[in-house]
Design goal:
Number of strands: 15
Shape: elongated
Structural class: alpha+beta
Strand order of the largest sheet: 2-3-7-6-5-8
Oligomer: single chain
Number of helices: 3
CATH class of the largest domain: Alpha Beta
Order of helices and strands: EEEEEEEEHEEHEHEEEE
Largest sheet: 6 strands, antiparallel, barrel
Helix content: 10-25%
Strand content: 35-45%
C-alpha cells in the first residue's frame, strides 16, 4: 500500500520514499509513500523526478493500481531495486497549475449547484483550463456570463479550502456530498476524503487543491456547448 502524501498536503514538493516493488518491463517503481498525484477524477497525473544512487529518473507518468502507486521512469539507466531509498521531486509548475484549475472547477460546481441545483455529469482538466458538464436543459450566453461573474466573485472573496478524511458513514451524513449524477465512490472505501470551500461547496474529492480561492486567479468561460438534451458543457481558462 502506498501512503498518499498529497491527500493531506497538496503543497509538498519533495519527499523521500522506499521502493517496494519494481516493474522492469514497464520501467515502473512502486513506492511506500508518494506526493505525486497518480491521476483520477478528471485531474491528470503528476510528473517529476525520482533520484537514487546519484541517478535522476524523469517520471513520465504516475498510476494508481489498487492501493499501490507506480511511477514510470524515462531513460535507460537500471531502475532502483526494491528496498532502495529514493528522493522524489514534483514538477511544481504543472502541479500548481492543476491545483488552481481543480479548485476553479470546484468553485464553478459550487456556484452552479447553489444557484441552479444542477448536478455534474462529467469533467476534465489540463493545466490552467478545463471543462465541466452539467444537467441543464438550456444554456444561453446570458446565463454563461452570469455564471462566470458569480465564479469570479467567489474567487475574489478568497475563501479558504479545507480537506478532511472521514469515516464513510460520517461522510455520507453530509447533505449533497456527491455532486456528480452518478456516485463514483466504490462501495469498499472505508474513508472518504472531502474538500470544502468555506461557505460555498463541500463534496467528496481525491485531488489536489490550493489553500484559498484567491490563488485561482481570473476564471474565464471561453466556450459552452450542448452535449445532449439535458447535458451542457462549460469550458474555462485561468488567467493570472
Amino acid at each position: 500500500m502506498t501512503q498518499l502524501l498529497y491527500q493531506t498536503d497538496s503543497y509538498l514538493r519533495s519527499f523521500t520514499a522506499q521502493v517496494v516493488e519494481v516493474d522492469e518491463a514497464g520501467r515502473g517503481v512502486c513506492l511506500d509513500q508518494s506526493a505525486l498525484y497518480p491521476g483520477g477524477g478528471g485531474q491528470p497525473y503528476d510528473t517529476g523526478t525520482l533520484s537514487a544512487a546519484g541517478i535522476s529518473y524523469p517520471v513520465a507518468r504516475s498510476k494508481k493500481i489498487g492501493d499501490q502507486v507506480f511511477h514510470y521512469l524515462e531513460g535507460n539507466d537500471p531502475l532502483p531495486a526494491a528496498g532502495a531509498q529514493v528522493q522524489g521531486e514534483i514538477n511544481w509548475e504543472r502541479r500548481y497549475a492543476l491545483m488552481r484549475t481543480h479548485s476553479a472547477l470546484h468553485v464553478l460546481c459550487g456556484v452552479v449547484f447553489r444557484d441552479y441545483g444542477a448536478l455534474v455529469t462529467g469533467g476534465d482538466m489540463d493545466p490552467l483550463k478545463g471543462r465541466m458538464d452539467f444537467e441543464f436543459e438550456t444554456m444561453q450566453k446570458e446565463l454563461v456570463q452570469t455564471i462566470e461573474a458569480a465564479v469570479n466573485r467567489e474567487v475574489a472573496l478568497d475563501r479558504p479550502l479545507r480537506v478532511a478524511i472521514l469515516p464513510r458513514a460520517e461522510a455520507f451524513q453530509i447533505p449533497d456530498l456527491i455532486r456528480t449524477k452518478i456516485n463514483l465512490l466504490p462501495e469498499g472505501i472505508a474513508q472518504v476524503r472531502v474538500v470544502e470551500i468555506s461557505g460555498l461547496d463541500l463534496q467528496a474529492d481525491g485531488g489536489t487543491h490550493v489553500n484559498r480561492t484567491g490563488e485561482i486567479g481570473t476564471v474565464r468561460v471561453v466556450d459552452y456547448k450542448s452535449k445532449g438534451k439535458i447535458n451542457k458543457r462549460i469550458y474555462i481558462e485561468l488567467g493570472d
